[in-house]
Amino acid sequence: MDDPRALSDALQALSDWLGGEPADDPAADLVALKRHMPILAAPGIAAERKQVLVDEVSERVMDLAERLRPQLLAAHLPLAATVFELTEQVCVALLDVAGVYAELVDAGRRSLLRASAARQTLAASALGLVTEACALSGLAAMQTPAGGWRLAHRLASAVDLAAGEACAARTAYLRLLAVAVSQPEGLTARELAWLFDFLDERVLAVALLAPDAATEGGAVWWIDPGADAPPVALARRAVPAELQAEGRAWAFNPRAMAQKLSECIDWVTAHMTAAELAGSSCDIEPLAAEEGGFPAGLAPLEMLALLRRLRMHWMATPVREQPRRAQQYVIQVSVGLKTVWELGCGLREQGRVHEWVVLNESPGGYAIMSAAGVDCEVEAGSAVALRREHGQPWSVCVVRWVRSEHPGQLELGLQLIGPSFQSVKVGFRGTAALHPSPALSLPVMEPVRRHPAMLALAGTYASRRFVFVRDLGHVYVAQARALGLDMQTPSVELFQYEIDPYPI
User: Fold this and answer.
1) pLDDT one-digit tens code per residue, 225-282
2) What per-residue confidence (pLDDT) applies to 1?
């Protein structure tokens, strides 16, 4: 604005809005924010005053994000169109404000008037906004907002990456990297929200981050700081020759963080054991706030399963062993272990079977998309059965990732765990459950699995010996020995077994 009076009026209007109470409707606050944002880019505002204004605008947009989070945690995917669009708009607003912070950081570096500590404070504030945008988009199963990663890399360049010093900006950037290499699309909303709260200096301080693409082992990721892209696993794609020749690639190694997680896993395991010996059950009750240094939100059993999966991802990069072929055909899908179990018991299919479209497939799994909307609850880690047409056997899969690019639409990545199944009930020795739990009995699946397996609800597996009952016109009862957990998600767990030749 060239007119000083117009600039003064615009600044006063912004101050009045910031001094007022937030609107009850977040959408109204977003409209007002968009109207006032251009003033922050106007010349003629002193850097000190601009920083004060940006800090206040940041608080307002973070308030919007905090009000949106509970809606996303309580909602079922796919999101309603209004919530989906609101999430997109809040993420854009968060990045817009972070961009103003980034301009202040760059101006401070050029003029050399701001101390390094001041620039890092500004960078930390901006990265906090970028982190919130990534968190909200993850809770909604959306892609990271466009420009988010480029802005994060730009802000991280204001930090001495190789120093390993404990500063808020470096920690915030490491948090983004740690979540990005944890396959966030494979986490439930509750797991993802907990992970962002959990990742603090205790875990992130040991991560290796350096502006040098020299790599070692299979757990190293590289970063192009000029690209709008997350870290890339070296095991999946090598560092481009031009980046390596110019020394512009950064290296990130989370393996030390994985080793730190072992201490956390030991603490949770000891806590659960102590509770069991004391006669109380802590499998499904969340820990007290900040107990053991962990944030609230997950029960110990859920926390243990998540920490183990994180450790696996950080120790060795998962690599797809079988290429998938593009396809386009309609498939019948049933979602949820209990729903699939009911189909195996002969209950009617109406309301339990829906049509989806296969996008690609391989011997190990599928990618499918909702064909006519989604009227069932879907989340990462849940069980899914699918078949090509009526009369064919149901294949059993587990949801590995969930994505949503448009309101009312979902894409699922599925891992095949059984070419068929039988509905059974299982009961473990030593449990207090009065009734057996529903489970799916899966056949041997060479070479992946050399024994039959059970897919049961999470928390079912309790001891080595268990009994299962199958009713196929005649009742079959057997005692079996579990051979250890093969997979554990928030919804289900998979374990191989063998019939016990000496039942007791």
Assistant:
1) 999 999 998 888 888 888 887 778 898 999 889 989 998 898 888 887 777 676 655 5
2) 53
Q: What ranges make up the beta strands (E) of 79-211?
A: 208-210
Q: Is the peptide bond before 318 cis (omega within 30 degrees of 0)?
A: no
d(CA 189, CA 187): 6
Q: From CA 8, how far away is CA 1, in angstroms rounded? A: 10
Task: With cut-offs at 50, 70 and 90, classify the pLDDT of residue 316.
Answer: confident
Strands (DSSP E) along 204-289, which ranges?
A: 208-210, 221-223, 232-233, 250-253
Q: pLDDT at position 287, please? A: 57
Torsion, CA 274, CA 279, CA 282, CA 284, rounded to 10: 150
Q: How many CB atoms lie within 10 A of CB 325?
A: 8
Q: 213 or 442: whose pLDDT is higher?
A: 442
Phi first, then psi: give them for residue 317, nearest 5 degrees: -70, 125
Question: Cα–Cα distance between 475 and 470 in angstroms, integer?
Answer: 6
User: Do the Cβ atoms of 452 and 466 come closer than 8 Å?
Assistant: no
Pairing of strands 411-418, 422-428: unpaired
Per-residue pLDDT, 178: 95
Comparing C-alpha atoms, which of 115, 105, 111 is closest to residue 54?
A: 105
Question: Is the model's pLDDT at 377 over the cut of 60?
Answer: yes
Q: Which residues of 286-309 are buried (b: 16+ CB within 10 A; e: fewer)?
A: bbeeeeeebbebbbbbbbbbbbbb
Q: Are 354 and 375 in contact (CB under 8 A)?
A: yes
Element (H, E) at 496: strand 492-499
Tokens of 475: 């009742």
Instruction: In whole angstroms, give the CA distance from residue 211 to residue 250.
Output: 4
Confidence of residue 384 (pLDDT cuts 50, 70, 90): very high
Rounded-to-integer distance, Cα 337 and Cα 411, Å:
19
Q: What is the mean pLDDT of residues 128-138?
A: 96
pTM of the model: 0.88
Using the predicted structure, report yes or no on whether residue 402 has a pLDDT greater than 80: yes
Q: What's the CA dihedral at 228, 231, 233, 239 to 10 degrees?
A: 60
**Residues contacting residue 482 through CB under 8 Å, at least 6 positions apart:** 454, 461, 463, 464, 465, 466, 495, 496, 497
CA-CA distance, 495 to 417, in Å (whole number)? 11
Could you tell me which of 126, 175, 124 has the C-alpha nearest to residue 148? 126
